[in-house]
Automatic annotation (TrEMBL):
It is found in: Cytoplasm. Its cofactor is Mg(2+); Mn(2+); Ca(2+). Residues 597-624 form a coiled coil. Its EC number is 5.6.2.2. The record marks K479, N482 as: Interaction with DNA. GO terms for molecular function: ATP binding; DNA binding; DNA topoisomerase type II (double strand cut, ATP-hydrolyzing) activity; metal ion binding. This is DNA gyrase subunit B.
Length: 699
């Protein structure tokens, strides 16, 4: 038995002990942690994080509004990449703070976890949970100027990279102008706060603010804070300033209508409740539309929760139970009938859930998911009681709810059988995947790629040109079903969709398991023409509706085949856009003509003959400076031989892939609904609106 060594001191390496001592321990003070690890506070340092700075400051103003002290919020995008957020609330206090011995304004602007949100009666509910919002904005900005209108005075303090440049001082009295400039509505405010900041370009990889993204966020906040006016101004172009105002008395009822304003509702009255239970304010609005997908957006203290949480769980439980109870009570569901499932009652549902909580518990500073256990029973009880009354008072609407759910139940049973057939086939044939799939030899998903290719011709070229080790090819015959207009049972009856599901190996919808994905990259590769664009859109609709984790996880890509081949002698270049073609031709003008050897001349003539036989489009060149240059226009992947397809579109060292991402889920949902849904009128309006901005339309 080995001997035990008790209290034996470890040997000290003198050299190492000198290299690592107390002086090597770094203590980050003040706002230094924010600059060291900005992603912990704002998500990332790209576009999402950049705009998060605005959200943090706006949220403080919204907190004032929710507390009943603010009626207007102004957001200005200024020249030189600056932003100013102004409200007519009470104004941040400016007197000396007892604990910090400096102004309360400076404390809020320079100290993490400082604000009116940690008890002491500052706010009952707040979106800025951690009290770090405005101080984080200050830390990540090269210049911040805070102005406060309070007690008849205007106070100001300036900061650089979070550090105050001077003490808070009075810069004048509050005055109201006789004539108001429409771009400066804040001049009418007798009280309030203004935060002006310039994001630090050494921190952010993207520094240009997106006007549409800002408008979408402010619109959302206006819906969630009924009776509060939000104004936006884009003053970056002095000659063409933009302005927008949002004000909604209907609150989230208006929001629920907005989310599916392109669609046809199946009932007359929108359901709405606003009630407080056990110090949790619950506000819910929903309606059903004549579609198959579900749209549920959830908020806590006006902060969006894209991953849901306890409020969404409470909503779903109450909705399913209450509709089943009503259907049983009115003998719509017989004793022998099984209950409607959660999926059944949520088909075609558009719902907005907004809760106000004193002490919200989120996952991380970006607040993606609500965790408060007490919120679920509060939402459950409020919705159950209110919906029960609504159904009794509106029997026609109740009939529409239940009728829609019963149809969904019938489709679910049919799709369950179809799903089991597909998945059972996938398991039984795991060693022999769909016959049309040319799989790769590697079994490591991280290095494997699946090319979804349009047509057998392109599929043949891709199979011959690929690297068999890590690239798999799945050719699609014709156009897949438009799943926006079809239920799951119809979708699963489509052979192309069935083959794709089996090839991916993940299942789909709510049962999708991203960990079982057989390919790290799933690449859509279609022709550069109208049919190719349509097939690509059909596939994107399928992935967005039924394989969304694939997009979230960054696994979905679109291949970019070249539009042209430009050739002069031995010089060959592949070009991917009309703009790039002009640049390439200018470069080819400078190439000198070289005498061709007899063999090379014969090869060129043979290649030209092959192009003619293949009916490949040759672009006619009028410019004499481009004598000897040939331009080949590719309309289909099948026009390329395997070597060309590998060199231009499949070789990881030379290809161009576009990763599919979704910046705004609600907006993406709306666009898919317009482009691929059953309603023709919205699609017509969309085409008429955007027709002039389409480039290189291939008719």
């Amino acid at each position: 038995m080995p001997k035990k060594e008790v209290n034996k001191k470890p040997k000290t390496d003198k050299k190492n002990s000198q290299a690592y001592g107390a002086e090597q321990i770094t203590v980050l003070e003040g706002l230094d942690p924010v600059r060291k690890r900005p992603g912990m506070y704002i998500g990332n340092t790209a576009g999402e994080g950049l705009h998060h700075l605005i959200w943090e400051v706006v949220n403080n103003s919204i907190d004032e509004a929710m507390a009943g002290y603010c009626t207007e919020v102004v957001v200005k995008i200024l020249p030189d990449n600056e932003v100013e957020v102004i409200d007519n609330g009470r104004g941040i206090p400016v007197e000396i703070h007892k604990a910090t011995k400096v102004s309360a304004l400076e404390t809020v602007m320079t100290k993490l976890h400082a604000g009116g949100k940690f008890g002491q009666g500052g706010y009952k509910v707040s979106g800025g949970l951690h009290g770090v919002g405005v101080s984080v904005v200050n830390a990540l900005s090269t210049l911040t100027i805070a102005k406060v209108k309070r007690d008849g005075n205007v106070y100001e303090q300036e900061y650089k990279i979070g550090k105050p440049q001077k003490k808070v001082k009075v810069i004048g009295k509050v005055t109201i102008p006789k004539k108001l400039d429409p771009f400066f509505p804040e001049e009418l405010y007798k009280m309030g706060t203004s935060i002006k900041f310039k994001p630090d370009s050494t921190i952010f990889t993207e520094t240009v603010f997106d006007w549409d993204k800002i408008l979408n966020y402010l619109r959302q906040q206006a819906y969630l804070t009924k009776g509060v006016k939000l104004l936006a101004f884009d003053l970056r172009d002095k000659d063409k300033p933009k302005d927008f105002a949002f004000f909604f008395e209907g609150g989230i009822s208006s929001y629920a209508k907005h989310l599916n304003h392109q669609d046809k509702p199946i009932h007359e009255n929108i359901f709405y409740v606003d009630k407080t239970l056990d110090e949790v304010n619950v506000e819910i609005a929903f309606r059903y539309i004549d579609e198959y997908h579900e749209t549920v957006v959830a908020f806590t203290n006006n902060i969006t929760n894209p991953e849901g949480g306890s409020h969404v769980a409470g909503f779903r439980t109450a909705l399913t139970r209450t509709l089943n109870s009503y259907a049983r009570k009115h003998n719509i569901l017989k004793e022998k009938d099984e209950n409607l499932s959660g999926d059944d009652v949520r088909e075609g549902l558009t719902a907005v859930i907004s809760v106000k909580v004193k002490d919200p518990q989120f996952e991380g500073q970006t607040k993606a998911k609500l965790g408060n256990a007490e919120v679920k029973p509060a939402v459950d009880q409020v919705l159950s009681e209110s919906l029960d009354i609504f159904l009794e008072e509106h029997p026609k609407d109740a009939e529409a709810f239940i009728g829609k759910s019963l149809l969904a139940a019938q489709a679910r049973k049919a799709s369950r059988a179809a799903r089991e057939t597909v998945l059972r086939k996938g398991v039984l044939e795991s060693l022999s995947l769909p016959g049309k799939l040319a799989d790769c030899s590697s079994k490591n998903p991280d290095e494997c790629e699946l090319y979804i290719v349009e047509g057998d011709s392109a599929g043949g070229s891709a199979k011959q040109g690929r690297s068999r080790n890590f690239q798999a090819i799945l050719p699609l015959r014709g156009k897949i079903i438009n799943i926006e207009k079809a239920r799951i049972d119809k979708m699963l009856a489509n052979n192309e969709v069935k083959s794709l599901i089996i090839a991916l190996g993940t299942n789909f919808g709510e049962q999708m398991e991203i960990g079982k994905l057989r390919y790290g990259k799933v690449i859509i590769m279609t022709d550069a023409d109208v049919d190719g664009a349509h097939i690509r859109t059909l596939l994107l609709t399928l992935f967005f509706r039924h394989f969304y984790p694939l997009i979230q996880n960054g696994n979905l890509y679109i291949a970019q085949p070249p539009l042209f081949q430009v050739k002069k002698g031995k010089n060959i270049e592949y070009v991917y856009s009309e703009e790039e073609l002009e640049i390439t031709l200018e470069k080819f003008k400078k190439l000198k003509d070289e005498p061709k050897a007899k063999k090379e001349q014969e090869e060129t003539e043979q290649a030209d003959e092959e192009i003619k036989e293949a009916d490949i489009e040759q672009v006619e060149i009028q410019d004499q400076a481009l004598k000897g240059v040939s331009i080949q226009r590719y309309k289909g992947l099948g026009e390329m031989n395997p070597t060309q397809l590998w060199d231009t579109t499949m070789n990881p060292e030379t290809r161009v892939l576009k990763q599919v991402t979704v910046a705004d889920v609600d907006k993406a949902d709306e666009v898919f609904d317009i482009l691929m849904g059953a309603e023709v009128a919205p699609r017509k309006r969309f085409i008429q609106t955007h027709a002039k901005s389409v480039k290189n339309l291939d008719v």
